[in-house]
Amino acid sequence: MFLLGYDVGSSSVKASLVEVESGKIAASAFYPKHENTIISLKAGWAEQDPESWWENLKLATADVLSQAGSGAVEVAAIGISYQMHGLVCVDKNGRLLRHSIIWCDSRAVPYGEAAFEALGKEKCLGHLLNSPGNFTAAKLAWVKENEPAVFDRIDKIMLPGDFIAYRMTGEARSTVSGLSEGMFWDFKENRPASFLMDWFGFGESILPDLVPTFSEQGRLTGAAAAELGLEEGIPVTYRAGDQPNNALSLNVFEPGDIAATAGTSGVVYGVSGKVAYDPLSRVNTFAHVNHTSQDPRLGILLCVNGTGIANAWIRRNVVPRGMMYDEMNAAAQEVPVGCDGVGILPFGNGAERMLCNKETGCEVYGLNFNVHSWKHLARAVQEGIAFSFKYGIDIMEGMGMRVGVIRAGAANMFQSGIFRDTLASVTGSIIELLDTDGAAGAARGAGIGAGIYKDHSEAFASLKRLALIEPSADRSKYLEVYSNWKNHLNNNI
After folding, report:
1. Distance between CA atoms of 339 and 377, rounded to whole angstroms?
2. Among 134, 205, 310, 460, which lies 20 to 30 A Cα-Cα from 477?
């Protein structure tokens, strides 16, 4: 018996089959093999056709079923992870009314800012835990003003994962975690955020029905089952946005647990046990997958734009041509902690939210032509990226969050010993590298929602630890270098 998980991203759709008894990933696949098309009709716009998600999901499903071998594959439950903050609009017959405005589209910023100014900082942060910003509610406000003919025909709006579940089950549903990421949830009143929706001019009836994150949320219809090559009636029992789901995939559920990723950009997602927000809105706060009003579990999300992209720039433009990352890392290990005084602020990939949306650009400081080589810069950029994570974690701690273990997949920057050792030592945290991905996490989440696993401890008991990185016995040098780095950053902002 298997659990089937999907991770519906903007680049691709991944499917994973997880064997219930062993917890092992039996098969996985992703489509398309090139990045999925993002439609950008104007600068700052980003849209995708939701039907492309469904078509790629079908291809990924066929692939994993083929890998699983001959004969019928018994799937007990389905879980869905999805790109956050997108807007999908359907009419009363369930037909799409326009392409989805996805997470990286910035057209709605003025609408969120206008609501924040009109309703007030105290009201918005106290109830939404965030500024309305560029989230789903503001995107819907843009549609209302700029495409009134479309808005008038909307029966329901959905997040990307809600739409995929709708295609599977015929049921338009969402979760508290999902509504919170779209700025549709009022944490103080524990209900949809009517004050914001009233200000924008749309009623609560436009929202899908609410279901618990872990629950039976509908069953696979005959039509959907035929398209997917699955049995009719399989329950969908879990859905969550990609960052909460990434945390779930890494068994991050309790206060002080942190999930981290460090690809082109980096994310630190920490769980807090109390409802709190950053008064400067440098981080975002959403309902985590196990949040309840009686037992709060909030996901505090920090995004750093300048992470892997900075490391990649150094490899392309500074290190000897053709050198691979493992060779670069080995050479950089020859340089001591602190890089003999040279440092890098890695913020060269646009405005950074944790720096109050300032676009400082990247800075190299302390460079001495008689002392430093490309090896120093190769280490300095990785230290700078780890320090940027620490800077964000400091913000989280300022919100009252206790930082414990940092969990991550063994990918991207976390493959580098320099980055891992620096992050562990400067934060004082143990780093666990785990063998998992978003689709496999969604499958295990489905197992919890279906009651196959009694809780997350049982669901993730088989999760394989690949490495454990402990802080240096003497952290003083790392903390000294970080203090110097932070002083340079503060002088820039």
Report:
1. 8
2. 310
80: enclosing H helix or E strand = strand 75-82
For residue 72, is pLDDT > 80? no
pLDDT digits (tens, 9 = 90+) for 177-235: 999 999 999 999 999 999 999 999 999 999 999 999 999 999 999 999 999 999 999 99
Question: What b/e sequence results for 228-258 when a residue is b if at least 16 CB atoms lie within 10 Å of its CB, and e otherwise?
Answer: bebeeebbbbbbbbbbbbbbbbbbbbebebb
pLDDT for 237-281, tens place per residue?
A: 999 999 999 999 999 999 989 999 998 889 999 999 999 899 999
Mean pLDDT of the chain: 95
Q: CA–CA distance from 181 to each of 121, 251, 360, 461 (Å)? A: 18, 20, 27, 29
Residues 6+ apart with CB under 8 A from 178: 159, 161, 162, 239, 240, 241
Distance CA 309, CA 315 (A): 10
- β-bridge pairing 156-158 and 88-90: antiparallel
User: Residue 151 carries which side chain, given as an amino acid letter?
Assistant: F
Considering only the C-alpha atoms of the chain, give the largest distance between any 2 of them, rounded to a whole number of Å.
72
Give the gyration radius of the chain's Cα atoms.
Answer: 23
Residue pair 404/251 in contact by the 8 Å Cβ criterion = no
What's the residue count for the chain?
Answer: 493
Residue 398 contacts residue 308 (beta carbons within 8 Å): no
- For the ranges 31-40, 386-395, 422-431, 450-459, the lowest mean pLDDT is seen at 31-40
Q: How far apart are CA 384 and CA 478, in angstroms?
A: 11
What HEC string does 218-273 produce?
CECCHHHHHHHCCCCCCEEEEEEEHHHHHHHHCCCCCCCCEEEEECCCEEEEEEEC
